Amino acid sequence: MPAFTLYGARGSTNTDRVRLTLAEGGFTDYELVLLNLQKGEQKSPEHFKRHPWGKIPAITTTDGFTLYESRAICKYLAKKYSFPLLPPDSNVEATAQFDQAQCAETLYFADPAGKIAFEKFARRFMGLPADEAVVSSALKSVEAFFDVAEGLLKDKEYMAGNEFTLVDIYYIPLIQRLFACGYGDVISSRKAVSEWWYRCMNRPAIQSLLKADKEAMAAASR
Ligand SMILES: N[C@@H](CCC(=O)N[C@@H](CS)C(=O)NCC(=O)O)C(=O)O
Question: Where is the GST N-terminal domain (predicted)?
Fold first, then answer.
């Protein structure tokens, strides 16, 4: 019996954050259950027991422990299975810098980048046009975010310091979505940011998961 079940959806950036964490940790002993968001399966009474807001991802372990929120899940899994993706608790300063980087990602990056992804990607699947005013304002925020990150990444290799951590993983799904929506130049036009992105993308576990997903998508659309 697998150690836990991950409830997610195909093409969900929040699910992919967890899958990338598991790939980096080399952990495969889990079951992935894909819910169909278009059919509203995330709003079933059964799923509300796992996620009070009726969203994905969520996990349930064999001993009945349930957790939702992608970043909380990633952190739990990294701690539970000792993935080398977090500073040690004994290093109080490095842990504080990790928390700081995590807050910056969630509060300053994920919100506007998520708006672009929703307007340009999700709404297309719903057959709805993007609200260009929302996109343009969100794009300004993402540009301003990476202007600051460009300065910070001149002095460190990764977002939370010189080690690759969960925070770097947190960025990957939404940045990929920015590339897919034609906004990849927010990354490639900034030297330090694009070098950081290249370092993240060149990690073997990340590369092979993204390659497998791309192949699965291509096969599904044939
Ligand atoms: N902050 C949450 C966001 C979860 C979220 O918005 N998930 C989306 C899919 S990527 C969802 O469930 N959407 C369907 C809905 O809200 O009904 C996380 O990081 O897990």
Answer: 2-85
Give distance in angstroms: CA of 157 to centre of ligand 1.
30
Map out the domains of the chain as residue ranges.
4-85, 92-208
C-beta 14 within 6 A of ligand 1 = yes
Q: What is the DSSP letter of 7?
A: E
Atom of ligand 1 nearest to the CA of 17: 19
Residue 12's nearest CA partner among 49, 46, 51 is 51
Which residue from 6, 55, 77, 107 has its CB within 8 A of the most atoms of ligand 1, so it is best to mutate? 55
pLDDT digits (tens, 9 = 90+) for 23-63: 999 999 999 999 999 999 999 999 999 999 999 999 999 99
Question: In CATH, which of 1.20.120.450, 3.30.450.40, 3.40.50.10090, 1.20.1050.10 is domain 92-208?
Answer: 1.20.1050.10
Strands in 66-68's sheet, in edge-to-edge order, are 30-34, 4-8, 58-61, 66-68
